[in-house]
Amino acid sequence: MAENRTDSGGWLDEETKRNLISRLKRIEGQARGIQKMLEEDRSCEEVVLQLAALKNATIQVGMNILGKHMAVCVETETARGNTPEEAVRKFMSVFTKFS
Q1: How far is CA 52 from CA 1, 11, 27, 96, in A?
Q2: 13-98 adopts what CATH topology?
Q3: What's the pTM?
Q4: What would the pLDDT profile of 52-79 be if each residue is shown by its tens digit?
């Protein structure tokens, strides 16, 4: 996994980082679209549908990031001599903040 890290020691490889940034830019556009819908007095149903899509897109980005973090966390912690259980416990502290 270390060979996929960025020069700064980051936990995301460059392709994953580009994909996540691209997704976040689309999410940003969705949020702007929802703002415009409110300004245009669009129906509650339309706005809520778009909010649900925005929420799901955000969750997908978060889950992707958490998946990468899990892999790196376990690798890093076990390399430090900690048990996999300790690594999972550390990961869970991050995961519970997301959920």
Answers
A1: 34, 29, 12, 21
A2: Methane Monooxygenase Hydroxylase; Chain G, domain 1 (1.20.58)
A3: 0.77
A4: 999 999 999 999 999 988 888 788 888 8
